[in-house]
Amino acid sequence: MATRFASCSCGQLTAHVTGEPVRISICHCLACQRRTGGPFSEQARFARENVAIAANSTQYVRKGGEGTCATFHFCPRCGVTVYYAADAFADYLTIPVGVFADPGFPAPTVSVYESRMHSWVVPPPDAGHYA
Asked: Which long-range contacts (C-beta less than 8 Å, at least 24 apart) are formed by 8-11?
């Protein structure tokens, strides 16, 4: 069974994950662009029972366009988001792919909010594409 380690920049907030993600996606929505400081976000969703979080986090709750909320957990020292929990997917935790610091991480299989995608971004052609 695969095991992965995610960490903020300073190493204070970590997540140990066992098993494969149930979904790997990229999101082009404006909220994700602001949250990451990049043109899109990439995240992997894991069954909650397969994720062990170590250390305390600061939380930010954001209400999405569909009316549901997501609680983002970030390091109070360096500010990096290490995971988030979406109300709509209570049995899962989502972890930004970048905090794994693993260039071999599997490619995204879903690309969402493509209507807000930067013109030069090219998602994987075999991914599901949603406006």
From this structure: 8/74, 8/75, 8/77, 8/78, 8/79, 8/80, 8/82, 8/99, 9/75, 9/78, 9/80, 10/75, 10/77, 10/78, 10/80
